[in-house]
## 1
Amino acid sequence: MDWNRWYSLKSYLRSSLWTVPLIAVAIYAVVKPLTEMLGRWMISQGILDPKTGFLGLSMTGARSLVGDIVSADLAFLVFTFGSLLVAIQVAGGQYTPRIIATTLLRDNTIRSTSGLFVFTLLFANRTLAWMGENEVHQLQVFIAGLFGFASVVAFLFLIDYAAKFLRPVSLVARVGEQGIAVIESVYPAPSTGVVTPPECARSRGVPDRTVHHRGKSGIVLAVNLERLVAKARRAGVVIEFVPQVGDFVAMDEPLFYLYGNAGAINERILRTLVAFGTERTMEQDPMFAFRILTDIALKALSAAINDPTTAVLAIDQLHRLLRVVGKRSLHVEEIADKSGQVRVILRTPNWEDFVHISFREIRQYGASSIQIARRQRAAIENLIQNLPAHRHDALLVELTLLDRAIASKHPFPEDLALARIPDSQGLGGSAASTTRQPAPTE
């Protein structure tokens, strides 16, 4: 299987809820015959009494217990999937549809609990059907009882977990954690504090060859940089990847520019090193975490929802991500081989891109809210205090725009003065502590 197909399949499976229950079915198909063989062996060796067993249940009691387990797990499954559908609708409408595949459907707790319910249901149902008129399979009933008890505990835990998981603070915090992981993987080197234009920004002239996208249009999910570098090194060329991860690429659009011995590269092999999909993912797209958090803030600031406190929670995470990305070297466009020769050029977001997506739209929609104005000012001033000097220019521009925006939104001097106070809580925190103490480091 080509790398791009494998990556797309892996990404799909990671965001699919049905995969873990399907694995539970496979585990059941292996475990159930083994436990039946073990039960027969224990009886033949005199280890297990076929009449009393571990629980001492009669045929009527065993059938009643196992039947209750089947009914309970079936109800647990119906409730879990029904509640999940409601949660998806609420999350998509209240926050943003982009957290469904990236957060809700990838949650291993929900997936694992569903798998436990499926396994227990199948195991108990098989045990009930396997029992004859005069024989109680004590080991099977005992194991079914254990899994039934575990299902009840898991169901109660799931209710508490889901209630806490769907809170705004939990969702934005999870997106923030994922965003930090992506930033650290895409930008592994710390910032040097020196701004140098990347080589790809300088003119390389006309490419010797252009490789166009074939097949269905889609969004770039990931690029296999290691193999691209290896291909470019063997062919003695420089490969420029035209779009950026997260871009939509239509059919026949340029995908690669080749400089040098372009005829030595197989176009089909190059195309297999780019994974496409219908929806952006975070694996190689650090900007997507900023996009999700900004969308949550914008939805909260809409007239239909009008929840600026949730928008402040999103700004908290944007502030956190900016502190991390601001200390990283963002010029990774030039990827060299072991000899130091540039082989691959890959465009990535720069500092201004991250600052713009974190502040501009939220300021446009939320400048009239004192909470938003104060929280954005606190974030900008804190970033100026804690990031290197070469990161300050873009932040100072945002601070100036924020002042101009709130001046146009607040005609009363008292409101304007209040809106100009930096506050990490939006409204209600201590302004003094906001400006003098740095936020916790990651």
## 2
Amino acid sequence: MHRFIIIITIMLCGLGAKSAELWPFSEVNNRLVLSVNGGYHFDSGVAVMGFGATIKGFHITIGGVGSCKLPDGVEPSGKNTASAMVQLGYQIPVVKQFRFIPVIGTAAVGKIIYDKEGEEFREEDEKPKTRLKMKYRFDYGIHFVFNHRALIVNAAVTRYTVFGGIGIQF
């Protein structure tokens, strides 16, 4: 299904373009792109938030949510989960306004574990210790990037995540 979407998108973008405008690697990949992203991790239903950067065509996305430290007043529960992702790829511009980025990386989900050991020896105001237990998996997918002047909009689908974002191109 993913391949079909990619092929159709490339064909639609290429229909209105002259052959000289196709594949503008030198023009598009000499720019810096910064973006913020938000989305969803399929395995756990946990949100994914992150940042993306494309420099000279090389792309990195880093993100996740969750922490071992709970805010004051929040009690531990079985629903305290976390996610993380790192993706690397290279941008392939079809035309100036549309490009795609095949990526590989890792995606993780986990739970915040609360250590109840030694609870009777803790001071009254001392918080229970926590640790993060994550399960990392190999992830792969594709990002689609559309731009208008300096504004970019991106959407990504990988094996374990789906997300979108906005950014700026310098």
